[in-house]
Amino acid sequence: MRGDTGFPRADAENDFIRARRRQVMSRLAKWMRREPDDVNIMLPYAEVIAALGQEGERRLGLQVIQVDSIVGSVDRTRDFDRYFRPTSGRTRERWERLALAQRRGESIPPIDVYRVGELHFVKDGHHRVSVAHALGLRTIEAHVTEVRTKIGAYDIRYRHDLLVKNDRRLFLERVPLPGEARAAVLMSDPWEYTELGETVEAWGFRLMQDEGKFLDRLTVAKRWYEEEFVPVVRMLQQADLIGDRTEAEAYLHIAGERFKLIRTHRWDDEVIDAVRESKRRR
């Protein structure tokens, strides 16, 4: 390894010093760039599961996993940063002992992790993961427990992303969209999931009044997507009113503009023309 002295104990000590220096420099760079506070914070397992909604788990046994796939911890988020660099000197003795064993080629016990999607969260073995990062190891042995969740763990990078996931999970409980529809309705602002949920429920209430019968949430969600969302999105695409937003974001925005401009819940050419004209005046 670069900069090695050839003396394992001295090299292990230097490994820790370098890891701490990188953590401090990373924190300083974040402050200078005015990045959000959660950029260098590892993901807390409990918060991730609360946002995604746990459905079950199963043990997968001993596996070799990618070190870079380990993004969070069950209970040690303060001792290490997002890249498992030590945040203080209190872990030094144990850390250097493991680094020394690793450098000497001694047997290192597997870590224990929870797998959520393609992400891994450490239950036991934080120091071993930290040493693996510092020594540039790409893989590590782990006892894996797979956790199934109500919504997927994709697009989770920072703690802020959990807000979007949590509100999306709540939205899908209110509006239980099936397969393709579920994947098509996406928001980047967590609050907009709440607004969209209220919009869909209001649409469903008007539908039940018109038809004079009760409809369950699944039926309302399916019919809203097929009879309201898809046709309206098609109109917005033809009128070039989606822009750089998601289809769901464009739908929610234009639906609000429609009612403010002409006080109606209908969709026709007059509505689209009014919205387009309003947009042109801004």
How do you describe this structure in short?
This is ParB-like nuclease domain-containing protein. The chain has helices at residues 8-33, 45-52, 92-103, 126-134, 159-174, 179-184, 190-211, 217-238, 247-262, 269-281; strands at 43-44, 54-66, 70-73, 111-116, 119-124, 139-149. By secondary structure, the chain is an alpha/beta fold.
Can you walk through the features of this model?
It comes from Allokutzneria albata (Kibdelosporangium albatum). InterPro entries: ParB/Sulfiredoxin_sf. This is ParB-like nuclease domain-containing protein. The chain is of the alpha/beta class. The chain has two domains: 8-149, Alpha-Beta Complex (Conserved hypothetical protein from pyrococcus furiosus pfu- 392566-001, ParB domain), CATH 3.90.1530.10; 175-281, no CATH class. The chain is built from ten helices and six strands. The chain has helices spanning 8-33, 45-52, 92-103, 126-134, 159-174, 179-184, 190-211, 217-238, 247-262, 269-281; strands at residues 43-44, 54-66, 70-73, 111-116, 119-124, 139-149. It has a six-stranded mixed β-sheet, sandwiched between helices. The longest helix is centred in the first third of the chain and has 26 residues, at 8-33. The termini are far apart.
